[in-house]
Amino acid sequence: MPRSERSPLLLAGLLAGMGVAHFAAPRPFDALVPRSLPGSPRTWTYASGVAELALAAGLALPRTRRAAALATSAFFVGVFPANVKMAVDWRHRPAPLKAAALGRLPLQVPLVLWARSVAGNAGAAPGAKSAVDA
């Protein structure tokens, strides 16, 4: 299977795994919810888990892939404030944890670009060379 055909499924797997994690172990995600958001952090944790699962399903289906990939790109931008909050909250933690929190910040850029690439390739014919494969 060419990379352009695997890419949406890998991204869907990443989102599905994180979506499940929001329900299996919600406490770490609760701590990332910015205090400025209304309501309970657990509600936001579950809502983002549902969003990740829905995006994963949309990415897995060719018919909805383009729209889901664009929404995924926006989602990655939207969760960036939680990563900033984590970096700020973890600034006094041991160096490896602090490095992990800081490392999440630039990681959002390739995730957004990956989702946009999946959106751009969603209309390509199966087996056709994409911009990613060229």
Main features:
about 70% helix; mainly alpha; disordered C terminus; globular; about 130 residues
Supply the number of helical segments: 6
What amount of the residues lies in strands?
Answer: under 5%
Helix content: over 70%
Q: How does the helix and strand content classify structurally?
A: mainly alpha
The residue-averaged pLDDT reads 89
Question: Describe it for me?
Answer:
- There is one protein chain.
- This protein has 134 residues and is mainly α.
- Helix content is 72%, strand content 0%.
- The protein has helices spanning 3-24, 27-30, 41-60, 65-78, 80-89, 95-121.
- Helix 1 packs antiparallel against helix 3 and helix 1 packs across helix 6.
- The radius of gyration is 16 Å and the shape is globular.
- Mean pLDDT is 89; it is low at 127-134.
Which SSEs are present, and which pair or pack?
Layout lengths: L2 H22 L2 H4 L10 H20 L4 H14 L1 H10 L5 H27 L13
Helix pairs in contact: 1-3, 1-6, 3-4, 4-6, 5-6
Gist?
Helix content is 72%, strand content 0%.
